[in-house]
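Sample A.
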Amino acid sequence: MTTNAEQDMPSHRLLKHFIEKHAVFSETELSAIMETIQVATYPKHTTLLKQGEISTACYFVLKGLIRQYSINAEGREMTSNFYKEEQAVVLFNSFKTKTESPYSLTCAEDSVLIVGSLETESSMYETIPALEKLTRSMVEQNFGAEQDERANAVSATPEDRYRALLAQKADLIERVPQHQLASYLGMTPESLSRIKKRVNQT
């Protein structure tokens, strides 16, 4: 893992590009942010959090893909979410209340992440109030989109869920193994294959 103190230039540029893309800070504020925010590079398959552990960090994806999943009573992995570029990865209940997480988090690709904690979060917000506004706005947007997606999926047919994926997150089809994608969509890999074939023929 590469932290902010020893981060390589590509990671440094990713952070600076993201900040400048979404907000305007003074040179002093930008310098403070760059010095304080921790950026880490994780190889594919790195486990960030195991089911049953207490989450002590939150993440923001600058580059890469994070998979959220749990293992059910039968021992099967159930994929519940994927977080990609410019999405926050926060298991609120575990992180804020220090309770065991019902999910695991793992890197589905080589990933560059902003890594935060309750302590650094509070300190940064006190120093740079505008950063809190930006952070909360991004988290709220992601959370709202996630809630809408889950609500729509409840009444949707398997084919509707696949079509919604094509419309909203088509890149996951190339980035994620089919068995994980099928689990995420709430169907078997065989059903997903049939639906993909049928949709591609229309």
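Sample B.
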Amino acid sequence: MERETKIKIIGTGIFIILLLSVAYLVYHSNKIEKNETIESVKINGNKLLSENDYLNFARLSDLSNNKFSLPVIKSRFEKHPYVLKADAKFINEKEVKVFITEKKIYGVIIQGSEAFFVAENFQLLPVFQNTKMFDFPVLSNIDKGSDLKSLRKIKSINILQAFKIIDASKLISTKILKDLAGINLRNGGDVVLTFSGLSIPVIFGRNYEAEKMVALEALLNNYSINNNLLAESDYIDLRFYNDIYIGSIQRVEM
């Protein structure tokens, strides 16, 4: 009986010691984290803006008199219009690296003197002064009287049509996608495309986007831009399924 009592007392004592040790370690680690100052924040995954632009937006360019937690840093970056998600991690005791995933941009819309990005989720994003511009196609004549405002979503039949054309271009050829300069949606009419390096417009029409892109790529591969057939023509017409028309506009002298 006495032996069992001693064993219980020893076991209880060991448990109390372990509990106190854990409590001390938790308190000590929290104290260190609370007093620790971040000296450097680096960014990974940024393409649309420079590291400094993102740091300025997150108010993290000057860390001399501030102490931040990882959740605060993550939250500040995710408030940026271009950022889909962010994750912040300690690289060492004084340095934090933020891994950001930017929203996927499909095109650019220009309204008056203001330009917007159109993101994958149909959201309009502002184009900032220092934004790096890539080969995004310009979408025009989307909807009559449409009121475009930053951070709003602009999901319509015409926007969906533009997205289908961009997706088809991406699927068929990276060169076709890169050269796609403009998508004129003509307020619901036959879509007209323009390509860098091609001086004549492409009357694309609507529907059968992938098939038409395959036909267009084959045409451009078989006929160089300097070929007489294209050089002497005024347009390429893809509106008719399985048929390509290369035509000229008849000019009547008065």
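B remarks: The longest helix spans residues 2-35. The first strand starts at residue 40 and ends at 44.
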